[in-house]
Design a protein that fits this description.
This protein has nine helices and 15 strands. It is α/β, with parallel strands linked by helices and 272 residues long. Strands 1, 2, 3, 4, 5 and 11 form a six-stranded mixed β-sheet that branches. Strands 8-7-9-6-10 form a five-stranded mixed β-sheet.
Length: 272
């Protein structure tokens, strides 16, 4: 089984692949998220997996935009605890480190540790890429903030474990497939949609009231601009219920009638 993710070996996304599918999965890294969607649509891989929301950094906007653009179906959500470690070369200790590489969000999430130890922050495209750079540059005074998984892959030592300020750091990933390849018998407990309201006072409330009317619990709501239409927005929503439940069918039918458009992004089991 082939699973596409964005990043290089050691990325947190690769860890999420193994958490959900097991270590027998063949995780294939792509440079950008668009390539992951294309690989899924062209059936080069069986599944795509990308991050969509983090408890600290918020939503990954580009990935939500791509869900609207591409004809895929979400079939699972995966929650991965994010634990940032300080990685450097064999024989190093914290007092040897002067500069630290990582993704911007990881640097921000570890800002207190970085400030307390008077380290220079150097942003990189991703955490795994930072670990690879530190290994290849082989400078004693450099380190990376990345996962324990990266330490194993790139032959680095863990200098300090779990250095983030906030320990409740969790990323939600979606697993998605070509719409033609949705598995039979998939348990359907949640739904993700995107919709655009009509333009009149109370239009959004009018749409959301359809969920309350049919006793449906909304778990996420977020607006995103439409680049082609300045000052116009779409709304992404997650709520509890399966696409085949009668109350969900009624609510979606009423929401669609009250909207400019509504797209169902997937119905899938609740993640653990």
């Amino acid at each position: 089984m082939k699973v596409a993710y964005q990043g290089i070996r050691g990325a947190y996304s690769e860890s999420a692949v193994y958490k959900h599918f097991g270590t027998q999965a063949e995780a294939i890294g792509y440079d950008i998220s668009e390539d992951v969607f294309t690989a899924v649509l062209n059936n080069q891989v069986n599944y795509g997996l990308l991050p969509f929301e983090n408890t600290i950094a918020g939503s990954v906007a580009i990935n939500y935009d791509l869900l609207l653009r591409y004809e895929v179906a979400i079939i699972a959500e995966v929650f991965l605890p994010i634990i940032h470690d300080l990685l450097s070369h064999n024989g190093n200790s914290l007092k040897d480190i002067k500069a630290v590489y990582s993704h911007y969000h990881a640097l921000e999430q570890c800002r207190e540790f970085i400030k307390r130890n008077k380290l220079k922050s150097i942003p990189e495209y991703d955490t795994a890429g930072a670990a690879k750079i530190v290994k290849e540059r082989n400078k004693k005074d450099e380190a990376a903030i990345a996962s324990e998984f990266c330490a194993d892959i790139y032959g680095l030592n863990i200098i300090e474990k779990d250095i983030a300020t906030n320990k409740n750091n969790i990323t939600k990933f979606f697993v998605f497939v070509n719409k033609e390849n949705v598995p039979n018998g998939l348990k359907k407990e949640k739904i993700s949609i995107v919709f655009k309201t009509k333009h009149y006072p109370g239009a959004l409330i009018n749409c959301l009231q359809r969920l309350a009317k049919h006793d449906i619990n909304l778990t996420k709501l977020e607006s995103r601009p439409i680049p082609e239409n300045p000052w116009e927005y779409v709304f992404y929503a997650d709520f509890e219920g399966g696409i085949e439940d009668e109350n969900v069918k009624l609510a979606l039918s009423e929401m669609e009638a009250a909207s400019v458009f509504l797209k169902i992004l997937g119905s899938y089991p609740k993640g653990k």
